[in-house]
Amino acid sequence: MSDRMLKVNSTLREVIGEEIERMSDSRLEMVSITAVDTAPNLRHAVVYIDVLERESHEPALDALTGAAKRLQTAIAGQVRMKYTPKLEFAIDPGVVGGERIDAILRSIQEGKLEENG
Predict the structure, then answer these.
(1) Quick one: 50 exposed, middle or buried, by C-beta within 10 A (0-12, 13-18, 19+)?
(2) What span, in angstroms and rounded, lies between the C-alpha atoms of 49 and 39?
(3) Are the CB atoms for 86 and 69 separated by under 8 Å?
(4) CA atoms of 51 and 2, how far apart (whole Å)
(5) Half-sphere exposure of 41 (CA within 13 A, CB side)
(6) Secondary structure of the chain as H, E, C letters
């Protein structure tokens, strides 16, 4: 990925994160923006999120999807870009994969403790 795209993604992540903090939707209280992946033509961006509680993923995605226009307006007002990307929201697969690996390692460790116990 080019330096320019890295800068665009970083800037969008910052602007979106700040705007989410200003929102009063309780479904967004424990949301973290983990990454943004903007298309090279700047017309589309996937915003990856993580939510502290697993059962809160869907409500958070619904809230963000509903607030997409507001977030795009914030981007247009704060960032000089040829196009303001259309935002799509998704759960960060890296975080989910990391949690799964952590759970597997914990179960292995617990099994070893029971064998030695």
Answers:
(1) buried
(2) 18
(3) no
(4) 29
(5) 3
(6) CCHHHHHHHHHHHHHHHHHHHHCCCHHHCCEEEEEEEECCCCCEEEEEEEECCHHHHHHHHHHHHHCHHHHHHHHHHHCCCCCCCEEEEEECHHHHHHHHHHHHHHHHHHHHHHHHC
pLDDT value at residue 20: 93
**What sign results for the dihedral spanned by CA atoms 7, 26, 55, 105?**
positive
**What per-residue confidence (pLDDT) applies to 75?**
95
CATH class of 3-92: alpha beta
C-alpha to C-alpha distance for 113 and 13, rounded to whole angstroms: 42
Pairing status of strand 44-51 against strand 86-91: parallel
All structural domains of the chain with their residue ranges:
3-92
Question: Could you list the mean pLDDT of each consecutive 10-residue stretch along the chain, which spans 117 residues?
Answer: 90 95 90 93 94 84 94 94 92 71 74 61
Distant-in-sequence, close-in-space partners of 57: CB < 8 Å, separation ≥ 6: 51, 91
pLDDT at 48: 94
